[in-house]
Amino acid sequence: MIRSIIRNRAIIGAAKIIHPDLMHAIACRVSHESKRRNRRSVEDVARQVASRPDAAFFSKGNDMIVMGHIHYPLHEVKDGRIS
Question: CB neighbours of 5 closer than 8 A, spacing ≥ 6?
Fold first, then answer.
């Protein structure tokens, strides 16, 4: 929903006439609220993805799982393996 609002032409036009400090404050508030609302779902997805590899994954010589761009630190050690 936020994406459709901030990409709206009328909003973009209005942003050009609003003081930059006010726009920055609005952007920070929107960002903060978005992160607050989505944090739990991001954490759940990160844990779900990290738990997928099974013994077969590690039996192929893999010692570690590295996921990128999830904005949530997750470090787990299971059976001496890091995910």
Answer: 11
State the virtual CA torsion across 4, 68, 43, 3 in degrees, nearest 10. 0
Domain containing residue 70: 2-82
pLDDT 10s digits, 35-71: 777 666 777 777 777 777 777 777 888 877 777 766 6
Token pair 């995910």 is at which residue? 83
Residue 22 CA to chain centroid, in angstroms? 25
The total number of structural domains that make up the chain: 1
Length of the chain, in residues: 83
